[in-house]
């Protein structure tokens, strides 16, 4: 039996737990860049505010204090999620964490125990962690998802689908488009075939006809709706294939330095991510773009990759490569709004063979797209004879590359010391937080950093931000 | 002689290599060192931390700057300190059957920690 446990208004619930002044008040939590509503309290929902509503539409009420606002506090939500998932694990080790606030569990249980189990889970999480959850219980994941949706609508907060009658009642009361895995476009196509409710989808149609509309996954969905489990519990995710850090800037910019800052920070972050998993990257890709919503402005969205001579998890090497890519791709007078770094060809760090051309000596071994040659030369601190320079590109990026590589004579010594340096960097960032140590910012204003004007404290991860009790 | 024989041993009957050489008495008496979080906070999911601000409870021995370790899994009982919500803010109160109606309990105070340095 699958138990789908999911948290109600998770972000908003986390905020309210640690800030009792928000109890009973309409509260919205905004996305990155303080753009749209991603979570709301029941009082805000009662006002008709939907997720996705842009913040500016509530400007007046917010200004008057009628609606309270918080920026997303991912650190807090992530740690609270860990608590919930760890607590859930005590009921079963057959568990799949599906998202930050949802998990599937398979709990061996007798039919007559299940409702009680669901209520026990709900009560325990509410009491011990302060988060309210709904529980859907069914023989398949898709049905459990549907049951969970129903559970949210009221009653005990636990909804079980066991008998045929229960399954029918649940599915007849749902639209086909509400079924997990059915998108908006597909809902319309199904309606065209006369399929409106989830029950009709489950029972009223042959698998072949469904295949045409829903594709290969369609028959899996139908089987699941009929009570036949076709989606197993997914255990720990496979080894990562890629890692990306990509952000939309709060303000568009055409300034090279601003972009360079962002690119260096993102590279540093994404490198830390793979280091955490014990991986090294064989290829780094930089993409950035202008604001695609400003249809009148000229658009430019370049992307370039660099294959490293040998896989690296060294932030200096990767930052240097990223800066090099930026110098090659940047064009002035375009207003850029988004940038991202992706690391691919990930391999466990232990497997990396040292290459003769490791790092910076290489000429031919340098890498793809003709950058390698320039890369190698650039880092030997030598002439920039062949180096193509983007307009105004000869700045920080260049300096960064030179700094990272060190001068010719010292280079071998620096490479030896590097593992300790990197370990020290990791340790400091782990202990004091990710912002404590990062490549130097050239632009103090950090125009590309997204707004987080109303972020609450990191109550469970920072000693200097814990709750306060006034006496 | 394959490993079936050893596979049936319980963990604790296998003597750690490093310990051979000590007397049988010390092996039997050996225990693991005390570890604060593992021993005092075995179920951290329900445990939260709050800083005491102000001198209002000085007479009770609770001072400004102390850290209260709050355990939501404990049920409040007579005479125990709880972190409560009063008028939209956190407060420390002593729980009693009489005053329980006056505030909502957020969690029970298990420990107070004071740094002496």
In short:
Chain A is an alpha+beta fold and 471 residues long.
What is the topology?
The complex is a heterodimer of chains A (471) and B (117).
Chain A: E1 2-7, H1 10-18, E2 27-30, E3 37-40, H2 42-46, H3 59-63, E4 68-71, H4 74-89, E5 95-99, E6 102-106, H5 114-129, E7 133-138, H6 141-152, E8 158-160, H7 164-172, H8 184-192, H9 198-203, H10 207-214, H11 216-225, E9 243-253, H12 256-276, E10 279-290, E11 303-312, H13 315-329, E12 336-348, H14 371-379, H15 396-405, H16 411-432, E13 467-470
Parallel strand pairs in A: 2-4, 7-8
Antiparallel strand pairs in A: 1-6, 1-7, 2-3, 5-6, 9-12, 10-11, 10-12
Chain B: H1 4-7, H2 24-29, H3 36-40, E1 47-53, E2 67-71, E3 81-86, E4 89-94, E5 104-113
Number of strands of chain A: 13
Lateral arrangement of strands in the main beta sheet of chain A: 5-6-1-7-8
SSE pattern of chain A: EHEEHHEHEEHEHEHHHHHEHEEHEHHHE
Q: What's the story with the biggest beta sheet of chain A?
A: 5 strands, mixed
Helix tally of chain A equals 16
- Helices and strands of chain B, in order, run as HHHEEEEE
**Which stretches of chain B of 5+ consecutive residues score pLDDT under 50?**
1-19
Number of strands of chain B: 5
Q: Radius of gyration of chain A, Cα only, in angstroms?
A: 26 Å
What keyword list fits this structure?
heterodimer; A: 471 residues; alpha+beta; five-stranded mixed β-sheet; four-stranded antiparallel β-sheet; 39% helix; B: 117 residues; five-stranded antiparallel β-sheet; 29% strand; elongated
What does this protein structure show overall?
The complex is a heterodimer of chains A (471) and B (117). Chain A is α+β, with helices and mostly antiparallel strands. Chain A is 39% helix and 18% strand. Chain A is built from 16 helices and 13 strands. Chain A is globular and about 65 Å long. Chain B is 13% helix and 29% strand. Chain B has a 5-stranded antiparallel beta sheet with strand order 1-2-5-3-4, with no helix packed on it. The interface between A and B is medium-sized, with 20 and 27 residues. Strand 13 (467-470) of chain A pairs parallel with strand 1 of chain B.
């Amino acid at each position: 039996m699958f138990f789908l446990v999911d948290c109600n208004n998770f972000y908003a619930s986390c905020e309210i737990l640690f800030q009792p002044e928000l109890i009973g008040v309409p509260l919205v939590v905004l996305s990155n860049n303080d753009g749209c509503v991603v979570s709301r309290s029941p009082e805000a929902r009662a006002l008709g505010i939907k997720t996705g509503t842009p913040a500016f539409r509530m400007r007046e009420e917010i200004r008057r204090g009628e609606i309270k606002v918080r920026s997303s506090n991912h650190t807090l939500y992530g740690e609270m999620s860990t608590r919930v998932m760890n607590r859930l694990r005590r009921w079963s080790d057959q568990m799949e964490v599906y998202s930050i606030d949802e998990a599937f569990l398979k709990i061996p249980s007798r039919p007559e125990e299940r409702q009680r189990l669901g209520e026990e889970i709900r009560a325990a999480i509410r009491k011990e962690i302060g988060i309210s959850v709904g529980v859907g219980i069914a023989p398949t994941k898709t049905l459990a998802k549907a049951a969970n949706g129903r559970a949210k609508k009221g009653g005990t907060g636990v909804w079980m689908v066991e008998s045929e009658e229960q399954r029918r009642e649940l599915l007849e009361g749902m639209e086909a488009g509400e079924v997990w895995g059915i998108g908006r476009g597909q809902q319309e196509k199904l309606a065209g075939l006369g399929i409106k409710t989830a029950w009709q989808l489950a029972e009223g149609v042959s698998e072949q006809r469904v295949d045409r509309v829903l594709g290969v996954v369609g028959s899996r969905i139908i089987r699941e709706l009929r009570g036949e489990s076709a989606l197993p519990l997914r255990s720990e995710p496979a080894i990562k294939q890629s890692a990306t850090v990509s952000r939309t800037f709060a303000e568009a910019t055409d300034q090279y330095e601003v972009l360079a800052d962002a690119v260096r920070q993102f590279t540093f972050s994404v490198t830390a991510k793979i280091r955490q998993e014990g991986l090294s990257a064989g290829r780094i890709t930089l993409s950035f773009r202008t604001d695609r919503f400003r249809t009148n402005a000229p658009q430019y969205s370049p992307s370039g990759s660099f294959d490293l001579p040998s896989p690296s998890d060294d932030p200096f090497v990767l930052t240097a490569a990223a800066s090099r890519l930026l110098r090659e791709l940047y064009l002035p007078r375009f207003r850029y709004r988004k940038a991202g770094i992706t690391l691919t060809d990930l391999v466990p760090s232990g497997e990396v063979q040292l290459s003769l051309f490791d790092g910076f000596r290489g000429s031919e071994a340098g890498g793809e797209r003709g950058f390698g040659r320039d890369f190698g030369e650039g880092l030997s601190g030598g002439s920039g004879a062949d180096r193509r320079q983007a307009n105004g590109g000869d700045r920080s990026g260049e300096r960064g590359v030179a700094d990272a590589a060190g001068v010719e004579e010292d280079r071998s010594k620096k490479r030896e010391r590097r593992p300790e340096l990197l370990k020290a960097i990791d340790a400091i960032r782990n202990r004091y937080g990710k912002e404590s140590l990062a490549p130097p910012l050239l632009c103090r204003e950090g125009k590309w950093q997204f707004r987080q004007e109303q972020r609450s404290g990191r109550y469970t991860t920072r000693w200097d931000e814990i709750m306060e009790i006034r006496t | 002689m394959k490993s079936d024989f050893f596979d049936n041993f319980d963990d604790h009957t296998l003597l750690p290599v490093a310990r051979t050489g000590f007397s049988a008495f010390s092996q039997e008496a050996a225990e693991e060192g005390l570890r604060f979080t593992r021993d005092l906070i075995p179920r951290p999911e329900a445990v939260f931390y709050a800083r005491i601000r102000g001198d209002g409870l000085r007479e009770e021995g609770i001072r400004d700057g102390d850290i209260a370790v709050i355990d939501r899994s404990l049920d409040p009982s007579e005479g125990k300190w709880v972190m409560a919500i009063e008028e939209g803010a956190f407060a420390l109160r002593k729980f009693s059957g009489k005053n329980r109606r006056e505030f909502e309990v957020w969690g029970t105070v298990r420990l107070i920690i004071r740094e002496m340095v």
